[in-house]
Amino acid sequence: MNLNIAVLPGDGIGPEITTQAVKVLNAVAQKYQHNFNFTNALVGAAAIDKMGNPLPDETLQKCKNADAILFGTVGDPKYDELEIVNRPEQGLLRLRQSLGLYVDIRPIATYLPLIHKSPIKEKVIKNTDFIIYRELSSGIYYGDKKTADDGSFAYDTCYYKAKEIDRVAHLAFKAAKSRRKKLTLVDKSNVLETSRLWRKRVKKIAEEYPEVSLFFLHIDNAAMQLIINPRKFDVILTENLFGDILSDEASVISGSIGLSASASIGDNAFLFEPVHSSYPQHAGKNIANPLATILSSAMLLEHFNLHEEADAIRSAVDQSIEYNITTPDLNATKKFARTTDVGEFISEYIIDKKNVMHPTENISLGQSTII
Ligand code: IPM
Ligand code: MG
To answer: In CATH, what number does 1-100+268-371 get?
Structure first.
């Protein structure tokens, strides 16, 4: 298959982790004889530095021309004082809006070798497997907002059109139908008008999916249930802001936010990015966990029906975890792996798993992982 992929490394650890994901995609291309072409583009603080704009026209154009976008992270503390409309994060927010990316799919799974890394008890989280469908193109992120010139007030508006709710709800119901047939709508319908509209629309749409059981939870309760009983969730459907918060919270179940991948989907554009942020305090140290971005690239391949290839990435990731070839967020020992070691191992495993040995048997890899 020919795929043109726009790579937007962004800020902080973004360049390091996207480099590893590209390495892994190149390994897949080599092994399965595909032709993946990568085009880099600036976004976020990196784009403000060079072009004075977090989403330069050239970047948007490259994204529109591509079959898919691999995104790193945006955000830089040096721009913390900038107004919202000029901040690095606008690079991502405008991209989502310009490309009509209206749903962000964020799966949460547990990995047996990492089960003890989570602060939550093993018996609570074992076999957790749910997926968040986060509305991505509307809500309080994009509603009218303002701060008074004299700083005496500020507001953000949460605004939803029925059709914005419907299109993401259909996708979430379809996902539930192909999984364990449970859908939980998370909202705050006891307080917010928009949440009341969500409930009304989702109840109506549920009639088209009789095999799916529909549940409702208020966001405050959902935040708690996610920690005390995560196994009860299958598909969670929610608005933009609640989805942002719940997906970071849910990553605690896997053991590190460095494992949480995502796929942002629109009618004609597809973007794949890690859930975590730019981790600027550790940028450039070669210790950032590339797995979330590598797993996002597996979601990219899955999107183009390259199931075997996506599985090859996921098995290689499982193996790296099994062998403890993991960065410090998952590996507190002195033998933690570097960002580049993880990408290297996964790429080599995809190309020829028989020749990649356990690190204790593999002297060169063993050395490279010791600091
Ligand atoms: C995410 C991020 C973004 C968001 C930021 C960087 C604007 O937190 O993708 O979850 O809030 O959507
Ligand atoms: Mg977030």
So the answer is: 3.40.718.10
Q: Could you read off the pLDDT tens digit of each residue along the chain, which spans 371 residues? A: 999 999 999 999 999 999 999 999 999 999 999 999 999 999 999 999 999 999 999 999 999 999 999 999 999 999 999 999 999 999 999 999 999 999 999 999 899 999 998 999 999 999 999 999 999 999 999 999 999 999 999 999 999 999 999 999 999 999 999 999 999 999 999 999 999 999 999 999 999 999 999 999 999 999 999 999 999 999 999 999 999 999 999 999 998 999 999 999 999 999 999 999 999 999 999 999 999 999 999 999 999 999 999 999 999 999 999 999 999 999 989 999 999 999 999 999 999 988 786 655 543 444 433 32
CATH label, 102-265, candidates 3.40.718.10, 1.20.1600.10, 3.30.830.10, 3.50.50.60: 3.40.718.10
Q: Name the catalytic one among 166, 220, 267, 352.
A: 220
Pocket of ligand 1 (CB under 6 A): 74-75, 89, 92-93, 244, 275, 277
- Distance (angstroms) between ligand 1 centre and the Cα of 244 equals 7
Q: Is 341 in the active site?
A: no
- Give, using CA atoms, the residue closest to atom 4 of ligand 1: 244
Q: Convert the chain into a string of H (helix), E (strand) and C (coil).
A: CEEEEEEEEECCCHHHHHHHHHHHHHHHHHHHCCEEEEEECCCCHHHHHHHCCCCCHHHHHHHHHCCEEEEEECCCHHHCCCCHHHCCCHHHHHHHHHCCCCEEEEEEECCHHHHHHCCCCHHHHCCCEEEEEEECCCHHHCCCEEECCCCCCEEECCCCCHHHHHHHHHHHHHHHHCCCCEEEEEECCCCCHHHHHHHHHHHHHHCCCCCCEEEEEEHHHHHHHHHHCHHHCCEEEECHHHHHHHHHHHHHHHCCHHHCEEEEECCCCEEEEECCCCCHHHCCCCCCCCHHHHHHHHHHHHHCCCHHHHHHHHHHHHHHHHCCCCCCCCCCCCCCCCHHHHHHHHHHHHHCHHHCCCCCCCHHHHHHCCC
Domain locations along the chain: 1-100+268-371, 102-265
Per CATH, 1-100+268-371 and 102-265 having the same topology is answered: yes
Determine whether 244 is an active site residue.
yes
334 catalytic per annotation:
no
Of the bound ligands, which one is closest to the alpha carbon of residue 248? 2
Question: Annotated catalytic, 67?
Answer: no
